[in-house]
Structures are given as C-alpha cells and as structure tokens.
Amino acid sequence: MAIVELDRLTKRYGKRRGIEDVSFSVEEGEIFGFIGPNGAGKSTTIRILLNLIRPTAGSARVFGKDVVRHSRDIRREIGYLPAEVRYYDDMRAAELLRYSAGFYGKPDEARLRRLAERLDLDLARRISDLSLGNRKKVGIIQALLHRPRLLILDEPTGGLDPLMQHAFFDLLREERERGATIFFSSHILGEVQRLCGRVAIIRDGRLVRVESVSKLVGSGLKTVTLTFAADARPQPVRDDELPGVVRQDVSGHVLTLLYAGGVRDLLEYVRRLPLADIRIGEPALEDIFMQEYQTDEGA
Description:
It is built from ten helices and 14 strands. The model has no long low-confidence stretch (mean pLDDT 91).
C-alpha cells in the first residue's frame, strides 16, 4: 500500500521554479530517502504534503487522501521534524512536549521519559537554555511521541553529534519495525545510504531518478584507489589509456577513480604503474549521486 503518492506535482512562485512534474510513491513500512542539494525542491515538496502551501498543479495523497481536502485528518497521523526547530523559549522541554502531545490525545508519560532517556535530553531545562542539538532532540521526541503512521523528517540530523545520530537512527529503525513509514529528506548522502531502502533524487525542482539504494550502489560503477610508490607521482588518466573513467581525483600519492569500464582493461592498465597498493570497491551513494547529476546536466 502506498502511504505517500505524488502525481505530476508542481509548485511555482510566480515566475520562480519550485518543483515541476514530480511523481513517485512511498510504500507502507519503508524508509524512503529524498535527496538533493539545498534549493533542489525537497522542502517545497514536504510543505505541500503537510498542506502548508498549495500546489500549482498536480496532486499529492497521504494515506490515500488528498492533502488539500483532508489535511486535518492526515496531520493527526503524521510526525513532522522540520530542518529548523523553533519553540516557546520560556517553556521547559517537558512542558512543551506535553503541550504538543495534547493535540493528539493524552500524553504518554512513560514514552516521553523513554525517548528523553534514549536521546539524553534533560526535560527540566528551559528551551532558551538548550543548545541547537538539544533543541533538535526536542523536535525528534515531538515527532515520535504520538506514534505516528508517517514520519516526515527534513534534514533531521543537523546539530546532532555522531553518538546522538546513531541513537536517532536506532529509534527510526524501531519505528519502522512498529509499522511506521519514514520519509527522510536530506543532503547528507552517507546517512541516507545507511538508513534508506529506496531514494528519490531531485535536481532543480525535477525528479532525476527513483531507485533502490542497493541497485544504485551496485550499478556497475567501481571506486578504484591507486596508491603510488613513495618515489612516484600519479598522473591523470587519459581516455586512450583506460576507457571508462567517469571521474578521477589526484591527492598526493593517491589516484582515485570512479570507473565504469571492464576489469580486464583496468588490470592491464595498473600492471604498468609503480603502485604500492590498490583497492577496488563499491562506490558510495555520494559518487552515484554526483554521476546522476552530471549525466542529467549533460543530457
């Protein structure tokens, strides 16, 4: 069952582009990544799903309901974490969380305490006294507290240190096991690769591709790291020397290639080089992402 459905969704701000003809769906129980650089249209898409802004054309449905006509019903079952959290500074964290949870019924005090403990948040402190990271923790708890069917997360790890990011990801996996669907919007590709099963790539307001992370990473591209001997300096690879080099980078004695050619050609090429080490591995999602952008840009 599709929890989120976008059909040719378009938003324009006068003559300025927001998003254009965006179509994809998010299935129940999946962690779905929505990736692109700042300004690509991720937040615009999220604001339409929450009915904070109206689409210019096309439609969006959540739980099978139109986001404009059934906004109130939809919001009862959504947990939303914005990229920037802003709260009443004079309230204590516990007071604010109980207040916001009251919109969904009686606050679950035991769940509130468990989430605060998992994220190491002092509920007695005032919002004005909290750091950026601790304010983000308040936002995470607020989004999770009422056990939503759908979590919409916009750049959710900003301000969190690595240990808290790990704890947060564990919580998200537990929510998925509970049956929740998670829409994870980010420009940090490493965390998307760790967490998400499928991703949609958006560029300049247009959808570039929707694909499983495993298929993207296993697309035939390889990352080749060539470490040269101490008395040798790597030179850029020419097309006539080794066809299939998509991108290359030289740093000191190390030459790194994103490679789409044949293994036999690669081995024949490196056999002639004064190497100290060679490593061949799967590319990171970031490499795939950059390749998709370059391919789309040149089309």
